[in-house]
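Hi,

I'm pasting everything inline rather than attaching a file, because the server keeps stripping attachments. The sequence lines come first, and each chain or strand is labelled.
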Amino acid sequence: MNISNLLQPKKIAVIGASERGGSFGGDTCRNIMDFSNPSKYYFVNPKRTEIFGQKCYNSTDEIPTNFDMVIICTPQSSVIDILKQSKEKGCKAAVVYASGYSETGTVEGKIAEKELIETCIQLDIALLGPNCGGFINYIDNVYSFAFISEKRDRKGNVGLISQSGQLCLSLMDNPKGKFSYVISAGNSSVITMEEYLNYLVEDQNTKVVAVYLEGVSKPGIFVEALKKAAIKKKPIVVLKTGRSEKGSQISASHTGSLSGSDKTYDAIFKKFGVIRVNDMEELLSTAHLLATIKEYPKKARLASMNLSGGETIITADMAYSKGLNFPDFTKETLNKLNQMLPSYATPNNPLDMTATLSYDSKKYAKALKTVMDDPNIDMVLIGYTLLLNIADPCIYYMTEGIEKVVKEGNTKPMAMIPYIENTRNPEYTERLEKAGVPILPPVVYAMEILKKFSDFVEYNSENHTLELALPKNTRLKTKKFLSEHESKTMLAKAGIPVPKEQIAKTKEEAYEIAKETGYPLVMKIESADIPHKSDVGGVKLNIKSEKELGQAFDEIMNNVVKNAPEAKINGILVQEMLSKGLELIVGVNNDPIYGPMVLCGLGGVFVEIFKDVALYPAPLNHIEAMNMIKSLKAYPLLTGYRSSEELDIEALTDLIVKVSDFAVKNKDKVVEVDINPVFLYEKGKKLSVADALILIQE
Amino acid sequence: MNISNLLQPKKIAVIGASERGGSFGGDTCRNIMDFSNPSKYYFVNPKRTEIFGQKCYNSTDEIPTNFDMVIICTPQSSVIDILKQSKEKGCKAAVVYASGYSETGTVEGKIAEKELIETCIQLDIALLGPNCGGFINYIDNVYSFAFISEKRDRKGNVGLISQSGQLCLSLMDNPKGKFSYVISAGNSSVITMEEYLNYLVEDQNTKVVAVYLEGVSKPGIFVEALKKAAIKKKPIVVLKTGRSEKGSQISASHTGSLSGSDKTYDAIFKKFGVIRVNDMEELLSTAHLLATIKEYPKKARLASMNLSGGETIITADMAYSKGLNFPDFTKETLNKLNQMLPSYATPNNPLDMTATLSYDSKKYAKALKTVMDDPNIDMVLIGYTLLLNIADPCIYYMTEGIEKVVKEGNTKPMAMIPYIENTRNPEYTERLEKAGVPILPPVVYAMEILKKFSDFVEYNSENHTLELALPKNTRLKTKKFLSEHESKTMLAKAGIPVPKEQIAKTKEEAYEIAKETGYPLVMKIESADIPHKSDVGGVKLNIKSEKELGQAFDEIMNNVVKNAPEAKINGILVQEMLSKGLELIVGVNNDPIYGPMVLCGLGGVFVEIFKDVALYPAPLNHIEAMNMIKSLKAYPLLTGYRSSEELDIEALTDLIVKVSDFAVKNKDKVVEVDINPVFLYEKGKKLSVADALILIQE
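And the predicted assembly:
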């Protein structure tokens, strides 16, 4: 089935057409009459002959021509028959508003959805929905949408896909909402979210893709779409739900989607440069920023120009709290500004211009251009709260100044930041937008959005391995731990360095091994049934002599017999005693949907207490491994903290890459890898894998 | 001088009155004509006889009566003379707009400000400013303000004090801005910020105090005002700048204020239950929330009612990310909701009501009341994006439903949360506000505000020692470290338990001490000149015999002679070897303005890497000490993490309280205390002060 048949139909039949407000049929017809060319639509309803003055047919049979797409406004029970009848008329696509499918969480609902999917596959019909609000194609003016909004031109370059219909409507209700496509995908059970995403990533009329996402059903297509966007550097802004347990629960009953692990999505979005936002305000405003500014800079080193000292200080504080900073202006810029500003002003970035310059458009333009021309600056933020009713005329001069600079060419991107939410004057909003200046929401939001913008523009797809190691779709049922020695042996085969160790089945064997290895030694019970060896008294450290070795052997065996009587014992592992380094953890969580996610963090209790862990999808290269390490709060401990030496970061990146490769190669077998602790030593002295635990499925 | 003379004057003279727009004189007169009773004002300008139809006098002499207050619209050079002339006419208060004082950062500016202050003290004139925008008293309709805003009724119950004039104007420009007082305090060099704060805390017409604060000059009055507010539980919402270094720098040049340490302010605000916000949007919206809802609950357990699944999920996610949670409804509530909602809906908190109920005001009221009556719920959030132009009629039914519930009495607080910033319909905004329902900004802001609201309503002043140990105003110049032994001796005198230790001046003395103490031992160089003993090789641990002791003595001495040849040595400290516990740090930073701040956190490198430190002003009691400990991220390590034992938290609170008492008693002497590490042991086994360092001033 072909998604273009759905989103770019030439002739459309509306089944269940009516004039009744608040009904799918009535509101769809009303929308068509308001926004689309009625000659492209046929209305069908056996009870009517005319709708809003246009002919209404008894049935699809009576429609004089074939049609590509059918909008089904009638209840669930009628859907399958209508699809079949429509097929007779050449129909290749359908929109189904009706609910009652998998989102109900009932067996009946799930069966109905399965039947719907199978029918569509059989008939080769690309279906939007069910349980959806329809879609609008603003490029070709196709209006197949069940909700009423204010009559207004909304054609723009943001492509919106949403698993919530209300969210589409809210974004359309906002003056910032300018779209190429709005797609309310509902359960997205035939054509899926990721297929719409892929379509919009490829669509030339769409500059920015905005997505409200509850879950993904075809990870392969999802990853392909993200990869294409990363390479093109087309921004995808995603509001992905499921950060909270409650949110995930409600998601599951909303469109029947399973969210998957939230942290996995964060990791994937990082790899592909996807912008993840927190709420609808951020979704719309980030998309609006990316859609409105004309060219994306390579970096986002910001300048800020304000009319008051207080507002300048607030801007500095909040930018700092979001990890943004305002670089210093060059001496040349400062000199020029000093000449323009009143004597009591101190030029700085962020800049308190004082109000004086903003009452003269030429002076304002000159100051703006001066800041813009600073080589340390990539983008200029204009701090000003635009009101609905203009009381202070300075916005007139400021806008004129901005327009002057834009007209003269060679501008850098600009955005306006209000200090308080307020009604915004539509005339100036439009003029600023035309000049490529979006108005962001107030400071806290604005700084969050700009941080994401900054990350986006600095994202370079060449530094990332743009693929995931997606697992086969079958999950095996039996999971089991490997013993420490088995785990290490498996890792060693993959080129991961593990310390010397041997299994002693008897005390005598232990003595022999010790002669070879030398003291001090470590002894650990070796059993796949005892993943947590310390808990059963199965570990003895710092054994210094044959005598101590003998005692330790007996003690471990006694402890294990007592504490884990049913465990199958391979023997006792005799290892060289490793010198202690910085304790780290390197591991793998194999996500059932997206495959192995590699993790790295500070070891010990601190992983869990401070959650200072980097997670990133395999496969990955050395740059990506390095960026994982750098993203840790504990990173300064590795680079030579206070009087301590720099540690062997190269060895650590190497380990991470090898673990990633190992996980990719074994993606259908290895469920978890936990190398904990890794001892990281001083630069040049590498690291040691002190313990390892692998969980496999069979 | 009396602040009431300034803020509640009966008769006012305006010097430099004019009709010229954009000038202090012109805009002040324009404001008076627009908003105040002109019979209370006299205009003075030798160049005019009439202003906007009202008589204008040549000089203050000519004014037929005495006046209480003078508004000086003329430049800096004229100010002192006008104050003197006004005094002749009984004047007790003045507003000075002119700039050119300490905010310039110049010597001239500082001299001018000093002269101004001295003149006011001499003449007993309560002065607002200089470098300010004036004030408005909405209660008595006194309008002494230099900026023009839209003509509109703004009388309400938020008292605003700001060190930025533009900020006052922006808050007044917003429809949410409803005030008792607006005070643009400028440099606040005569009547200070904290005196305005104190006034508004006491003012019966002010329900909420909102403050934009760059710095404080009279900490005693500041603390008194905070204490009064804490006891009354009158909310103070503060936008305190200086979170970032840049922000602090610009602050310093803006009103000549010194911010003080930002973390100190956080600690003080915690003690007194002050609400600290991030930007102007939060300042206004938090104040608006607190001003609009009729009664504050004791807790803020929230329910959320939304019209769509997507919006419900976003609400759940964002609340979670801010540390808010929605408690489950009782079975009774769920049963009732199940009967009201369509079959496909799953009641939950947050609640996806689906759109159905919102098109019938009775049904909506019933659902709202059901949620409100749940005993687990203290406050109801209504998720809805109100538009300027109403396209969807549901807001009509929802508002009617809300009004119905309010009319029937016994309501719990409500607030509306939009999902996107937008223009808001004024009619419904007003009706909702009248019903006690404020409209908050969109979700990210709203959840941040509600978290602060929740902390505020749960704040109980009885659990806090509502005072600070303010230091004397004189800072002593000579600072010096005490040696470890001197530091511990000083702490021991204050009842803080320190381990056994003695100073050995010779090796022989060391042997003698060792006989008494027993092995293993620790030896450390004892010198006030060596605060960081390890760095010079001055520490030896785990000494097990007389032989090792002799070697260690020599090594330490040799190291110190080599590495710190100029240090005065008291000998070598011989201590029992302490068993290791969890490493913590307890300390004191004596803030030059606000006195000792007690700190507690995880020891070692983790203090600095993870910044997991609690800071709280002395004096403090056991509840406050306990709350400091609980606020640490590392707190789970103390309560029995995984298989480890619970630690002696009681001993730790006890230590914190004793250190606080010690710091209070020595507030003018002790600059810093650093007890690091403290070893905390299992419950019942107390703790050990392993090392201590005190910095004193003389």
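The mean pLDDT of chain B is 91.

If the labels don't parse on your end, tell me and I'll reformat.
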